[in-house]
Design brief:
Elements: E1 9-10, E2 15-18, E3 23-24, H1 71-82, H2 86-125, H3 135-161
Antiparallel strand pairs: 1-2, 2-3
Length: 163
């Protein structure tokens, strides 16, 4: 019986060395620096991730971006797939845009109402003759705001109805 041959030893790293691969050799798994497992032993379980994101940055930030190999062909296939859904897609996009516009306009109009009330109080406090809060103007603005918010909520509901 002859003794089993051993791989060459890399004295610099203190590990067996695989001359063909040019890197440290692990007899069991072939991974650099892994401890040797006895023959017939089951493979070791995978190591748990370092954190809840698996050691990757959150959301893939910092990851290399993969470009589509055929962007035009992929876009053409996507548009062809969406062709029967054009009307519904247009309604959803329009409802989203309308809801966004109303979300921006609502606070702006409410600010105009607040400004008008504040101007009336300041004028009255300074003793300007005939100064008062213009409640007709405030009422018209608030009525328009109620209509605006009801349109916003209906567009929001319409956008969710397609789900």
């Amino acid at each position: 019986m002859s003794a089993p041959s051993r791989p060459p030893f890399d004295g610099a790293q203190g590990k067996p060395f695989d001359g063909a691969q040019g890197k440290p050799f692990d007899g069991a798994q072939g991974r650099p620096g892994a401890p040797a497992a006895p023959p017939g032993a089951p493979p070791p379980p995978p190591a748990p991730p370092r954190d809840m994101f698996g050691g990757r940055p959150i959301g893939g930030l910092g990851m290399p971006v993969q470009k589509a190999k055929n962007f035009k062909g992929t876009l053409r296939r996507l548009l062809e797939y969406l062709r029967p859904h054009r009307a519904a897609l247009a309604v959803v996009i329009l409802a989203g845009a309308t809801g966004t516009v109303f979300s921006v306009l609502g606070p702006k109009i409410l600010g105009m109402t607040t400004t008008k009330i504040f101007e009336g109080f300041i004028a009255k406090a300074r003793g300007v003759p005939g100064a008062a809060v213009d409640f007709d103007y405030v009422g018209r603005i608030l009525l328009g705001l109620i209509v605006l918010y009801s349109c916003r909520s209906s567009s929001s509901i319409r956008g969710r109805a397609g789900r």
